[in-house]
Amino acid sequence: MKRLFHGAAKAALPLIARLTRPLTMGVRAMVFDAQGRICLVRHSYVEGWHMPGGAIEPRETAHAALVREVHEETGLALAGEAELFGLYLNERMARRDHVALYVARAFTQTDHRPSRLEIREFGFFATDALPAETTEPTRRRVAEVLSGARPAPLW
Question: Residue 103 to residues 70, 107, 146: CA-CA distances in angstroms?
Answer without folding.
Answer: 12, 12, 11
